[in-house]
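Hi D.,

Good news: the full-assembly prediction came through. Inputs first.
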Amino acid sequence: MSDEKATTTEAEPPRERNEETAGGATLSLSRRRLLGTVGAAGAGGLALGGSGGALAHSLSQDRTPVTPLASVGAGRHSFHGTRQPGIVEPGQAHGHLAAFDLAPGAGRREASALLRRWSAAAARLMAGEPVEGVADTGIADDAGPSSLTVTFGFGASFFDRTGLADRRPAALEPLPEFSADELDSRRSNGDLWVQICADDGLVAFNALRVLQRETGRVARPRWQMTGFNRTPGATDRPRTARNLMGQVDGTNNPRPEDDDFDRHVFVPRGGDRRSPEWMEHGSYAVVRRIRMLLDEWDEQSLEQQERVIGRRKSDGAPLSGGDEHTPLDLEKTDARGRLLVPFNAHARVSAPETSGGATMLRRPFSYHDGFLPDGAPDAGLLFVAWQADPQKGFVPVQRKLDRGDALSRFIRHEASALFAVPGGAPEGGYVGQPLLEG
Amino acid sequence: MSDEKATTTEAEPPRERNEETAGGATLSLSRRRLLGTVGAAGAGGLALGGSGGALAHSLSQDRTPVTPLASVGAGRHSFHGTRQPGIVEPGQAHGHLAAFDLAPGAGRREASALLRRWSAAAARLMAGEPVEGVADTGIADDAGPSSLTVTFGFGASFFDRTGLADRRPAALEPLPEFSADELDSRRSNGDLWVQICADDGLVAFNALRVLQRETGRVARPRWQMTGFNRTPGATDRPRTARNLMGQVDGTNNPRPEDDDFDRHVFVPRGGDRRSPEWMEHGSYAVVRRIRMLLDEWDEQSLEQQERVIGRRKSDGAPLSGGDEHTPLDLEKTDARGRLLVPFNAHARVSAPETSGGATMLRRPFSYHDGFLPDGAPDAGLLFVAWQADPQKGFVPVQRKLDRGDALSRFIRHEASALFAVPGGAPEGGYVGQPLLEG
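Then the structure:
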């Protein structure tokens, strides 16, 4: 999950980059918010860049601790740009995935107006500015943007509902069925998709609430899932984050500085054979709700768990040796000639070397929705994977996993969706405009 | 929610108190963890106290940002002590509330053994140390303690199941029925209660998972709820946190430095008329799942919302004037003689001045479990209130609210529970030992 974290410095909390970023983030907040901040914390609260020790925070008279905005709350991403946010940024601590279906009677015109409203609201929310009017809830009023990102996508059914079937990307063809799927159709697919990520739970909820209210009568919620990742600052280890099986998960993710990162993750300028021009700079999101059979998993010994994954649990290093980022040695054997990374180990089966180079950017959340009627935890991974074409990313990898992954015994794919996520909107424009007005 | 935050400095993230705390927290971590830290981050990552600018973090060679442990992860509370943790500490960003029922055949002996196991595991988890053996999941392995607290309580039914009915506190009598209750018995009450709070979602989940696994065949999950609060550092405003209605909520909470705080919240040494000696230094937790009818609420104008609450939405100041912490002026009227804080405003009806001094320490979480079949958000407040005797805290306040609170229209009490939370365990002891072995 946090391989990206290692490399995309844009999204680092400003406290770790000091004056330049902190100042920029603070100044970019709305005047209303800024004045509120000065009034509440005194100028000292904003003076982070000026003095090396400013983070030894000041206490106001009533002994309320004042954490400078140049902290978690100040993290800020831009909504407008060539690409949508929420793809390459480090994964935030809170995530909501929500699918909506257009209401009966709503078509292209209503969808266009909705995407315009959604885009306008997302831009304000991501800037930490209140959304005026019907949608102003106040929930996030005191918080900074907290690295909020909002991302919009279209499911295959959207194109039928809006009379745009002829503009549906070939790359949006339905995912094949996999033998291990136990999919719940009510929690799968959907006309419209919204991904909301933020480092604060109230900021994330507020964004979801605002966007849901902006749908008016045009769209209705189909499904919604909530997940989490590690809170910024909860660890100081330079290591990919763990999932709810305790594994270091995401080591092999492509990195934005890799030469072929863009090619793997984003539709090129002008589109390509499988994606029309309106998808340029866009991507495809595969969303899978993958429940982990944690009771069964936890009954395995450490050695059994490590042979299922092909990596050490403690630090994610391959069983063939080295540290977390050492490439797998797929041939290496022990003294008895046994493969160190077993033939059906998850790391081997999912490796690009064994998938014809298939690559996707995984950006998941853990989820935990209590327990099921049988007492088993309803918990696992909200798998979100990004690629320029699912046929060159998720599909070939999952086909291989479906056939021979030792991990399959311990997981269940319970929901699935695929969305076309267009490029970003320029100032004054909205996401999907080239499709809906093109 | 964060009135306590203002005053309990013990739990401030060490980055805000610098060398002393940061060093202490780091040194208190296990050797295994500490060595891992040094190896990963280099000595620079631990040198927070030494140089004023140390928080401008160092980057390791692979450009992985190294956030010093003296950050969110380093927050650490002690499990052992006169009182249990999780009552007076500032509310953490993540919370799990879970009730368990003893399995058929399990009695006092099994309960005693379970509380001993639970206490031992909680102490290690709160110290950021791995729990060895059957319960070691690895999920939290790279994280600091992240201000984890674990709190245990007993429901009224526990005493019957364990043959201890004669030692049940009088103060644990069932809560009265309120006219606005729409309680779901499956999500109410329970023999045993666990409250888990942490600033990191994986740390909180891990603790829940470990404690649930430690139950073995002695107890089974009855209900479980998950909530959240603002992430540390998401705001820099010295203001009580907001709830999902956007209100500043918790302004009037008692503060630990108040003269009568202990008397209101904790059972005195030796017990009292309504609490036996084994409850000394303990407290009673009232837990209510209060759904907010957010669609209806959000249709109200700002003025209507403010008159329901009796406070300004923007900053929580009473409608009678002043700032958030100005006492309500219950008599003040406008030019037309209309009460500024309406007669049925929530702030008026719940004020100690109008409840015969009834006081409780509210320490809630917001919750959000997607949406209900009718499309309404399944969201609201996991209300947790602490008091030395519910008859002098929650009950009289709720009786008054039940009769005349303007907020009642916008909320539903969907689940309810009351737990006796004994005093803390000394080193080598366990929570509930004076009851179970007394």
